[in-house]
Structures are given as C-alpha cells and as structure tokens.
UniProtKB/TrEMBL annotation:
Residues 544-622 form the AMP-binding enzyme C-terminal domain. It is an enzyme of class 6 (ligase). This is Acetate--CoA ligase. Residues 34-86 form the Acetyl-coenzyme A synthetase N-terminal domain. GO terms for molecular function: 3-hydroxypropionyl-CoA synthetase activity; acetate-CoA ligase activity; AMP binding; ATP binding. Its EC number is 6.2.1.1. Residues 88-474 form the AMP-dependent synthetase/ligase domain. Belongs to the ATP-dependent AMP-binding enzyme family. PROSITE patterns: AMP_BINDING. Coiled coil: none annotated. Residues 1-21 are annotated as: Disordered. One of its GO terms (biological process) is acetyl-CoA biosynthetic process from acetate. Keywords: ATP-binding, Ligase, Nucleotide-binding.
Amino acid sequence: MADDTGELEARLAEQDEFAPPESFVEQANVSDESIYERFEENWPECWNAAAELIDWSSDYETTLDDSNPPFYEWFTGGELNASQNCLDRHLDERGEEVAIEWIGELGETRRYTYSELHREVNEVAATLRELGVEEDDVVTLYMPMVPELPIAMLACARIGAPHSVVFAGFSAEALTTRMNSADSEYLITCDGYYRRGDALEHKEKADEGVSGVDHDVTGIVVDRLGEEYDHPMRERDHDYDELVAEQAGATVAPVDRDAEDMLFLMYTSGTTGKPKGVKHTTGGYLAWVAWTAQAVLDIKPEDTYWCSADIGWITGHSYIVYGPLALGTTTVMYEGTPDYPEKDRIWEIVEEYDVTQLYTAPTAIRAFMKWGTEYPDEHDLSSLRLLGTVGEPINPRAWKWYYTHIGDEDCPVVDTWWQTETGGMMVTTLPGVGNMKPGSAGPPLPGLDAQLLDSEGDPVDNGRAGYLTIQKPWPGMLRTLYQNDERFVEEYWSEYSDTDSDDPDDWVYFPEDGAKVDDDGYITVLGRVDDVINVSGHRLGTMEIESAIVGVEGIAEAAVVGGSHELKGESVYAYVITEDEYEESDDLHDAIVASVEEAIGPIARPEEVVFTPELPKTRSGKIMRRLLEDIANDDELGTTSTLRNPNVVSDIQQKVTDN
Ligand code: 6R9
C-alpha cells in the first residue's frame, strides 16, 4: 500500500493538467465549451441567463445600465424578493424536501424542509415587523452557525430590511464599529455556542459591543445553550423563542424590491483601519450567486451540497444560503470544527448525508493532509461528485491531495477566486468544460474580462506577475461602499481608470490582488498587493491590527506583516517598538495579544511578536514592509540600500531566528 501511494504521488507530482472526469461531464449543468464565445459575443445580454434562474415579480427593462460608471445598475426596472426566490417558489415541488440540514457540534441535528423553513422565516419576518423594523432598516446579525442565522437573513430579505452579518468570532469592538457605521438599530444575537465541546458565552460580548453603539438597540436573543448558561438580558432585549411563538402561523407577503435595492451589507477589511461596508443588491447579486452555483458548483435540486465556510463571511452568504437555496437544493450547515470530536468529522458527515459537493478552504485541506489519509480512508466518500476551494491560493500539493484522497480522481476540483466585493465566483474552471491545473484558479468565467496589468497600466507578458484587473462590470459586483461613494471609487476604480470619463470602457475594477497568467489564459492568483493579509482564508487589515497594538501602554510603534504559515497560508507577524521607559517582557507580549483579540478577534492573534529597537524605514520615513515580510518568511532579503537604517535588518533577523 505504501508503495502504491508513493508511486501515485510521484505520478501526480509530475502531472500539471487534469481533464474533467467523463462521468462528470456527461451530467454537468454546463458542458458546452462554446459558452465562452457565446457570452462574449452576446455581452451584456448573456447575463439574462443568470436573471432567468430567478423569479421576478416585475420584469426588468434593461440588462445593464452603464450610463454612470462605475455606478453600474443591472436588471433595472425589475422587481423581486430574495426570500420568495429561496423559499416560496420551491414549495409546490419541493416543499417536503430538505432545505437546510443542520449538524450541531455535539451531534444533535435539525432538519428544515422548504415548508418548515418557509414557516419559520415568515414568523421571524412578522416578529421583526412587530418590533418596528421597516423596509431599508439595517438589521445586524451577530450569530454563530445556528439555523436561526440563515432564517433571520431570509426574514430580513422578506421585509426588505438589509442585513449586516458580523462574524461571531469578531470582537465587541468590531460589532460596535459596524453597528454605528450602518446606523443599525436592531440586533439579533445568541447567548452562546459550542466549540470543541465547550460552551462559549457570546451574549456578554454582544452586550459590550452594544454598549458602545451611539444609538438605542433593540435586541433579539437566540437561546442556544439553554440551562448551561444563564445569559444576561438588556432592557431592550427579547427572547427569540418567545417572540416567534407569538407569531405562530403568521405569514408575511414578500416585499417587492427593486433589482438595485440593497439586499445586505458585509463589512470587510481594507487598507485603512476602517472596515468597508460592501453593498450588495437584490437582483444582480441573487442572479450571480444562483448562476455561479449552478455553473461552477454544478448544483441540482436533488443534491446534498456542503460548503464548510461560516455564514459570517461572504462565502457563507453566497454559497451556504442564497445560491443553494435559490436553486432549491439541500444545503448542509455544520456548527463545529473539523477535528471535533475526531479528525474524521468531515468525512463522517459526507458519508452519513451522502454529500455530493464539498466546498472548503485550502487551510482546511492542508490540515486534513497533515492529519493523514487514515481519516478519510475510514469512510465511504463515493457520494462526492465535485470538490471546490476558495479563500486563498491553494498549493499544488494540497490540490492533488484533495483530488486524489477525497475525490478519488473522479471529482473535478474547482479553485474559485473571488471576493466579498465580487459577490460570487469570478475566476475558476467550469468543471464540466475546462482542464484543471493545480495551483491555478483557471480562466475568468464566461462573460468576464480579466487582464493582468503592470503598474503603468500596460498588459504584462504571460508568465510574469502583474496586477489582476476586471475590465467589464458583472451583475454580482458591489454597488458602492455604504454611504461612501467616494471611497468606493477611490478603493477599487482609481488605480487603472480614467476617473473623469463617463465611457464605461475607461473604467477598470482593481481587486488588489497580484497574479500571473499562462498561454491558455489560466490565472494563478498570487495574493493581496495591499496591506491586507489572508490568515486561513480570512481577510485582515494590517492597519487594524497595528492600531490595536499601539493602543497597548508602553508600545510606541508597530508594523504587521503576513509571514507564510504551513497551515494557515499566512500568519500575523508583529514587529514592535516599546516606549523608552518600557522593555520587552512576557507581560507586554501578552498585553499585545490580548489587545488584538479584543479589537478584532482571536483569528488576528499574532503568531510572532518581535520586539525591536527600530523598524526598517526608507529615507522618507515609510516602513519597508517588504523587508519585514522577507524576514518573516525567511526569504532572501530584498535590497536594503534605500533604507535610512540598514543595520537594523540583521538585528531583527537575528531576533526572529532566536524566537
Ligand atoms: C471569497 C473570499 C478575498 C481575497 C481575494 C484573494 C483571496 C480568494 C482565492 C484567493 C487565491 C483563490 N482569494 N479566493 N486567492 N485563490 N481561489 O475569500 O472573499 O474574504 O473578501 O477575500 O481572498 O486575495 O482578494 P474575501
């Protein structure tokens, strides 16, 4: 056996291109390669194909209104409701089929058929109305992976109240910032949840967050922990079960929303310390996630599809909730971690539920790889038809491991590049059409125009690194940053556009990623080129972390960079300078870690804190992050000749080695 595996690995190691399995192609939702040409010739009307996947209460008049770039509008004049699309329209044919298969960490399960989900969403929608929530009021959802989270999202969508989901692992401070920024007066939260068998209390953190909000907040609290935790209630808090019980059997007609009305806000990290409120709309976003879910994830109503992300991130919004439910399939929602109670938990679930597609992150795959093949080998994974990854670059070795040991060389692997801002997938192979190349996401989807440019805006040669740009609008794109059109233009459009022009051809979207492209047009995404790092697929702004660190008494200055990490992709390296009267100490180290956790959350915890008397700076006083990155990665150092203080570099290097 060991020999076989060795041989197999050796063979795979050499192979850098894989054709989609024949058995997959035969049944794929999309298998005709002419789709690329057809979409290009028929742009932008090609996107009517996406709009056709959803129900409209009033037909749209125009596919794309590009009269005021970069404020594009899609499917203008159309009206629809996302909750109606995810629920009501499936009731006749699929009312008794499973919509959400929820698996709790402690082994308990909850199953919602489409009619059951429809009932509870209606009751929650009625509850929100009763509390005074009106159309266009932003409702904040600060909840872990409990069924009430997607239920609340759909209830908000039903009454036309945009939701703003704040990842439960984020800190109280992060909640405050987001609620203030969105003027959100309503919060649905949870008493707590389970992590590796332990009850984690969440309500105190929520309350602390609310205490910083500059206006009154009405709360609804889901009781997940029961008697295990006697959670505090504020005066304006209500118990979820009690309120919903009062609305038993209530129905709320889905509100007609204009295609361009906001469906939700999602805050994400950017270059500056302040998170960006990405605005997604009802028509374009829903069409985009439905279309990509059927074309790339090959979702069919009879599937049991599982995306292992957290709904607190965009991946969960698009590919646990809206995409799969719009298509009427069964979507699996898992509360826990992949190694609890054992390292085979994922494979146990795949086997038990006959999961047909698995969509996860490279970080998870690298962990599975490290744990060893014995865990997947214990289970029958033959129900799987397709595998996907998202969130960060996947190294070819991890890709091949996934393809072989999970997919049994019989499932296509889609490596999907996209962002919070793009709403859904952008660059990936179509699994029934294109060959796969491990490590390369693939070509842009049909109807998308991606190009690599150098810093002057000129195209770069194939094989060379450049900046990824998107040259034409697409339905799922963000429309703006909440109440900040100026920052929207500045962040995404100023780099490569002629911002004085009203010709859409002069406007180019810049996602702030570096990439290279090969002769077949396959794009390998290299990573962020701004001050954002990607830890386990989670986007973190280095400025946010730095400002938490310099908030610690005794710290004068901090520079944060990403260092490569075997499992997480990148990890947080913090280089800090103490104030004169202070010295490096364990206490100071712990205070730094605590402050980062408090400001952002445990995901941003520094892996290394390096105390140094100086930071490498250019003559103009700018910190040379590139050098700090080289040190963190133990790479050969780039040039130090432009530094004001070149000697500091070897000192820091020595400290990192000693740590
Ligand atoms: C969906 C999501 C976006 C950033 C993006 C890029 C990185 C995502 C990737 C990938 C290489 C992939 N990224 N998918 N890099 N290959 N398949 O992750 O959204 O949290 O906004 O992060 O993630 O750097 O710019 P978001």
